[in-house]
Amino acid sequence: MSNSSPAEAAQGTGGPQQLERSAGLWRVVFQSVGVMGPGASIVFGLGLIISYAAGGSPLTMLLALLAAMCVAVAVGQLATRISGAGGLFSFTSSGLGPQVGFLVGWAYVLMTVVLPSVGALLFAIVAQDFCTTYFHFTMPWQYPALFALLVTALAAFRGVKVSTAVSVVLGAIEVAILALVAVLLVIKAGSANNLSFFDPGKAHAPGAGLAKSLFLGVVYSLATFVGFDSAAQLAEEARTPRRTVPRAVVLATAAIGIFYVFAMYTAVVAWGPGRLSSYVTAANPWREMAGRLGSAFAVLVALAILNSTFVLTQAGFNASTRLLYGMASARTLPAPLAWVHRRYRTPWVATAFSLAVAVAGTLIASAKFGGPFNAFVYMITIVSLVFIAMYIVTCLSCIVYFARGGRHIRWLLQGALPVVGIILLVPTLYYSGHGLSYPASDSLPTLAIWMGLGVLALIALIIARRDIGSEARRWLTADSAAVAEPELAGPG
């Protein structure tokens, strides 16, 4: 890495600086937890799952946890050798080649708009409901949405140490409050508790068979897990990344996944299996359920969910800006996106770009779909489909990377579990294209157009003889050095 300043880089006399390495294990863990947004997910994500899988929703969440753990293991194994800020882009470039890596990165560039926007839209919806419920006035949703985007962008600009500290504190409070409320609701449900909700026969979407209902439920169940891999994008800012990142990815996925399964079960039992259609249309079903325990619990849950949506926005900025930095460093996106601020050692151009497109995306999508909730449904469907596809490719990358070049493959961690992940994810991706309703259905043509443009961009780069293989060579060259350093070797 060159030590040139941003100004020098701007003048073409130097390259991007190295990012600051200041993030320990728990900061990296809560980067993944923040993107998953457990509070926001159980309020908004569970309703979408229930709309497709009904009483079988706890089973679909359990299947999603199994799939996510398989992918987390694959990500963790790759992270023991490859520690690039590009995350899945770095992994697939090294495993399947720069062309595949470029298309994965191109798909992830779309997340630069969508991830912060999803958080901001949810923050706006919850803030509006909070003001209406407790202060009896309706605040325009645009104000809290823009507030969340501006404040979290500023934290991302100030540095990963600042932004991840916010995620650690607020994320821990959020999960603790919601877990306590879930336990109390299950206890209060008494005789209504029943393990039959893990029976696949209880999953039924309107006009769909069992398999379709289950896997459509898994589509949105996986959407609640999206971002567990984002710890990998702090690899260039984490201490001992080849040890920290694998542990963080697996730990975050397992802990929040178990929480999700329990929360999904709680929602079905506490709301009432015969009343699930009203759960889908409720403004804040967890606030309503917590109100049965007392008004104080309702306020705590409302605040925890508001907090969750803010942390989700923050983590979305961290993930998207580091992806842009990683791709620009690999010369597959414009070089200015890799410029690092002289004082804060953060990718400031990438942060400014992410803020601009997130603000535009939030406002345009809401105008097109008639409000923030429909815009959220549209965007979260894009997120789910993109990540399901990228997770399939990542599992395949893990198998290929460790199987080639005479490496000694560990068949359980680097072979069998990634294969199981692919087996679970492929039918989920297939059924997601056969049964989505409006506005979720509009995500399919959006993705088709975006990926079509990506293919054209790749062809243009190849014709122009641009070197798009530097990311793969960068980390393949570092492979032997990583193995030679015991303190960086990591688990597995």
- Global outline: globular
Helix and strand content put the structural class at mainly alpha
Number of helices: 19
- Mean pLDDT, rounded to whole units? 79
Query: Helical proportion?
Result: over 70%
Beta-strand fraction estimate: under 5%
Please explain how this structure is put together.
This protein is mainly α. It has helices at residues 6-10, 25-36, 38-53, 57-79, 88-96, 98-134, 142-158, 160-189, 210-225, 241-271, 276-281, 285-291, 295-329, 348-369, 372-403, 411-432, 443-463, 470-484, 486-489. Helix 3 crosses helix 13 (295-329) and helix 4 crosses helix 15. It starts with 5 loop residues before the first helix and ends with a helix. Mean pLDDT is 79; it is low at 1-16 and 475-492.
Supply the key terms.
single chain; 492 residues; mainly alpha; 19 helices; 73% helix; globular; disordered N terminus; disordered C terminus
Map the helices and strands.
Blueprint: H1 6-10, H2 25-36, H3 38-53, H4 57-79, H5 88-96, H6 98-134, H7 142-158, H8 160-189, H9 210-225, H10 241-271, H11 276-281, H12 285-291, H13 295-329, H14 348-369, H15 372-403, H16 411-432, H17 443-463, H18 470-484, H19 486-489
Summarize the structure.
The chain is mainly alpha-helical. It has 19 helices and no strands.
